[in-house]
Amino acid sequence: MSAVFVTTPEIGTRLWINDQRYELVSVAPYVRKTDGVATFLLEWEGRCCTDGCGAPFRTSSTMTVTRLKRRCDEHKDQRSPASRKKRVAKVRVELA
Ligand SMILES: [Zn+2]
After folding, report:
1. pTM over 0.90
2. Cα-to-centroid distance, 48 and ligand 1 (Å)
3. Residue 83 — φ and ψ, nearest 5°?
4. Could you tell me the distance, in angstroms and rounded to a whole number, from the CA of residue 34 to the centre of ligand 1?
5. Contact criterion met (CB below 8 Å) for 42 and 5
6. What residue ranges do the domains of the chain occupy?
């Protein structure tokens, strides 16, 4: 499952992937390298999902969001059992 933005979402748009929440912090014009199409790069702020951490981190996506980083730089190498199983993520968007 993925969220596809047809027009650029407003800053502050919230997105959930399963139970993890992200908030849109910036939108930047971007030219796709594969075919030269002008599109946008979305920058999201999330909180590290490692127990007891919760540090904010930023990650970016294209206009189609399928999966995002889930942990801060300190914990990025950890893997949860859930991600190894490749279960389908539930994606939900709340426009600002
Ligand atoms: Zn962390």
Report:
1. no
2. 5
3. -75, -25
4. 33
5. yes
6. 3-94
